[in-house]
Amino acid sequence: MEHEYAIQVRGLRKDYGRVEALRGVDLDVRRGTLLALLGPNGSGKTTVVKTLSTLTRPSRGSVVVNGYDVTRRRNGVRSSIGMVSQFVALDWLHSGRENLVLLGRLQKLSKTNATRRAAQLLERFELTEAADRPVKTYSGGMKRRLDLAASLIVTPPVLLLDEPTTGLDPRSRAVLWAAIRQLLGEGITILLTTQYLEEADRLADQIAVLNDGRIIARGTAGQLKQGVGRERVAVVLSDPEDFRRAGDLLVGAGLTRDPETRTISLAIDGPSRVKHLLDLLAEHGLAIDSLSLTKPTLDDVFFALTQRASDPPEADPMPARREPNDELGALR
Amino acid sequence: MTSQTQTGEGVARPDTRTKLYWAINDNLVLIGRHLGHLTRSPDQLFTALMLPATLLLLFRFMFGGAIDVGNTAYVNYLVPGILVIGVTMVAVSTSAAVQSDMQEGVVDRYRTIAMADSAVIIGHVVAAVVRAAISLVAMVGLGIAVGFRPAGSALDWVLVAGTLLLFAFSLAWVAAVLGLVARSADGASGLGLILMFSPYASSAFVQPETLPDGLRGFVEHQPVTLVVDTVRALLLGLPVGNTGWYAVLWWVAILGVAAPVATRLYHRRYA
Lengths: 332, 271
Description:
The complex is a heterodimer of chains A (332) and B (271).
Chain A lengths: L4 E12 L2 E12 L3 E5 L6 H8 L7 E6 L2 E2 L4 H7 E4 L11 H11 L4 H14 L15 H11 L7 E5 L7 H16 L3 E6 L2 H7 L2 E6 L2 E6 L1 H5 L5 E6 L3 H10 L6 E3 L4 E6 L3 H12 L6 E5 L3 H11 L18 H4 L2
Parallel strand pairs in A: 3-8, 3-9, 6-7, 7-8
Antiparallel strand pairs in A: 1-2, 1-4, 4-5, 9-10, 11-13, 11-14, 12-13
Chain B lengths: L18 H22 L1 H22 L10 H31 L1 H6 L7 H27 L8 H28 L3 H13 L15 H9 L1 H14 L6 H26 L3
Helix pairs in contact in B: 1-5, 2-3, 2-5, 3-5, 3-6, 3-7, 3-9, 5-6, 6-7, 6-9, 6-10, 9-10
């Protein structure tokens, strides 16, 4: 029996005591596609992955992975998934090869098969040279690669990746991205969580945005970015009165005002519009202290989304966290 | 039902065998993992041997002269107690090992594999028993080197080993429970310390008759004393009486509680 969707989640809720981590999540991931679950820290991404991987039980709702229900058919789910959690899940005292052989044997491979498979995976993830050193001597990127290799020993139909590139340097990130694309090419269904809009943009067929335990938007990267523009300009006006007046004066897509840093940021169509903006501010005698051009960040997308949503974003304003727009853009 | 995804390279295919075969396989694989740790960081085992060795030398040569244990030389009285302390030491380290496993996420990986869940804790416990056996051999050797002259028969030695390994097995399960309950590494070693001290408040170093009443009541009846007394009687060729049976009953009972509790806790942790 083939299912069109490798992952189907309906009305998933999860409470930890009185804390509601998930408040009704629906997800569908079509076979052979990658869904990126995008959200800030604490939005519930890891809880979704833990539920899909049988590490935690849903409080309510139904979760079906590869046709198996996660509460009733745990072993079916476990045989269908590979998982890379946020924390490297390996034995640090053992070598990379020993880790892979051990995990292969726990997945019902004979000793010979497990050894052969380990060698293949080490080769594929460029770890052959370090294969016989203890994992504790590996770099962060090597550990992640080994972790990914460990989840592919018995090629799973579904792969769950929880923030696989968080904390990695640009090169390791690029290597991991390439590996993920190759796996997609092999027909594996992938659910990946990330805090980086650019990462979702590069890899995902579909993006679901998770905030405070709810999906607040879904679509392709292009659709999500519509509200925030392809480029943004941010101006800082340190004079409080100027900041207030500029805020009233300027209008634009995805306009955000941050009173703390006295920064106003908005979407622009192209660099030529910057002159426009400067002229407008100068006409009104408003002095700016600095100006910068940025790519839209997750915060910008969130702001645009929460503003558009019919129910106003409750209490919790977006954390004033601006991901540095690092190499992600440069690598395009 | 499962769709096998074809990869360009050779696809690893699981063998098909019985459930029991795989349960045993999983246990052996994880026991192997922990035995691997022994050779990978021998310093840990070395540390675990240092304490009983130091105590043996300390009591043999410094304090022993001041302790009167009746008919036998103090070193003969002492070594059985040292054996128990050595075994306790390596069994209790299970709590820290279990706790760090839970912390480091390697268990998350086991939990997302369709394998015998029980193997995770059993692997730790059996490794503790192997460490206990190593500790026993080392302490008997050191004991004989400093004048220990046992009088037990070959059968007595077998019974000694059996009693102490049962003790190690049960105690390791208790330590595993503590490791599962502890929320931090410090917590785990703190809780482990309670177990670690249990042989000190036993008949390991001194005869309980010399103790004040309240303490004496506890020391005479606590289960570690039963183990020490059994091992001592067997090694010195003295009558064991019912002490041996009580010791076995106690530790089987403790095992009967600790093993299911540990298993439950392991499952519960991810509710």
